[in-house]
Amino acid sequence: MIKISLFSFGMFIKANKASGILCFIFEILARIVGVVDFLIIAKIIDVVVKILQNNSSIELVVPYLIFLVGFNFIASCIRRTRNYYRNKSSQYFSFYSDVFLYEYYKTLGVPVMEDPDKNNIITRGMNEIGQLPNLFFTFVGVIADVINVVIAGIAIFYFMPKLLLVAIIWMVINNIPEIFFVKEMYQYGFNNTEARRLNNRVIGYILGKVNLIELSIHNSAEYLKKKFLSFIEVYLTGWLKIRKKAYVWRTGFSLFNIFVYFWMMLNIIGKIVKDKLSIGRLYFYISMIERFEDNLDGLFADITALYEMALKIDDTYKFFNLKPSFEDGKIELKEFKNPPEIVCEHVNFKYPNTERLIFKDLNLRIKAGEKLAIVGVNGAGKTTLIKLLLRFYQTTDGDILINNQNIDDLMIKTYYRNVGTLFQDFGEYQALTAGENIYLGDTSKDKNDKKIREAAKKADADDFINLYTNKYEQILSEAFKGGIRPSTDQWQRIAISRLFYRNPWLVIFDEPTASIDAEAEYKIFNNIYEFFNNKTVIIISHRFSTVRNADRIILIDEGHIVEEGSHDELIKLDGKYAKAFRLQAEGYEIKS
Fold first, then answer.
1. Dist CA 340 CA 353 (whole Å)
2. Domain CATH number, residue 539
3. Is residue 454 in a domain?
4. What pTM was estimated for this model as a whole?
5. In what order do the strands lie in the sheet with 342-349?
């Protein structure tokens, strides 16, 4: 619990160091100033009694009243300052928490993200990071409660030592069950993480606009709703069972509290009568006893809440302590001046937690400046090869060399600045303009509007962008005022424009034109081959019209390169490639 509390403290401070530290200081001050207030009022009561007894001038109490007013003004300023820094720090954290998540998330690597157990930690960690400010303030509250309890405890010990001991034992016994119930509730939620994640995805299908159209037409949404409600019924039954048990225990302890409180008040009254205390001291000690009880009760409540939040935020802590899939390399790769050569030497690979080898002794040399196309049936290993070339995964055995340097030895950030990729599942940045969507291809330099338009022309996107109301300044979502929604075809061309704008030395396409008609695809790929003429280009595609102009085509089957050569050479070979080409040509009326 302390470990998690200190973690949340550090994260909260990290968002804005100065505000976070001042927030902590004023949070403590605001919670302890009340003790001084009690002392001043106690003194004023004694002075007023003295005035009444001696028929003295009321002027005797004026200095104390002035002091009280002055102190209350200071206390008010402290509380207002506390609120200011609390709001400021919370606001900073609410924005920066997503940045913290991103900065760490990007270091983990694909294998970590695809591991079910670690994915659960990531999901819970991301969901619960918003609780960190609450844990921070609760942690500060615990510190303030301890200070208040110590101050009030010293006063009570001086007044009646045994009362202090009874009050402590009472509060400890009263709060022990709470800790057990908090842990049981957390464990119940923890055990159901996978089920909740799965069923949240199910209900998300209904809420998604694209899915909703299909589900409405097929009248399938009701099934998904019933599936979700069925889970909710089972989940809430278990949840309520724990809550009811806690309610019974708390009710029983409330009766115990009544008897203890009666005994304490009886002893307090006896002590007051016996020692004939002044009214001011009477007020002060009663206030201290009430303050001690309130703060001790608050301390245990805060500790219980802290324990509960720490259990939840434990996954956020675990998230920020997840180890990357593999260590980054140490060699800083300089920016390429020429297209790179890529060599795969005796590569074996299997996915984590599996036994089947996707590649076994794969050897492949991609020449500098070569246009290589990779074809094969689904599941043959095409995309897996791309994942290895991008070091999403490391080889099980063997080496991948980039310009004779092992890819595992390279600092991944410096490698990626030389690479451009376009996958079938590309990014649609709907809250950005058309121009910004293209500019994301290379944000390392200032935005170049001329270069953006040229890239769009190469991807056959300039014409439809210029039809938009705001042209390249058009927001690409109807969810925002004045925005529009591009078609799937248009989105794909914008994504291709992004790669033209980046203009990297190593270009990788994985089914880049799946949503584009054959005529547009032919035009775009002519531009790709021309534009990236002096670059190393790797293309995965099922359309032979896309790959036939490549310098070399390799056909992968069950993780092995079974055929390779130019389009004409493979047609003459009359193997698997030629057979697949002829089948597709019949549909597209392509001539070999």
1. 33
2. 3.40.50.300
3. yes
4. 0.66
5. 359-366, 342-349, 397-402, 405-406
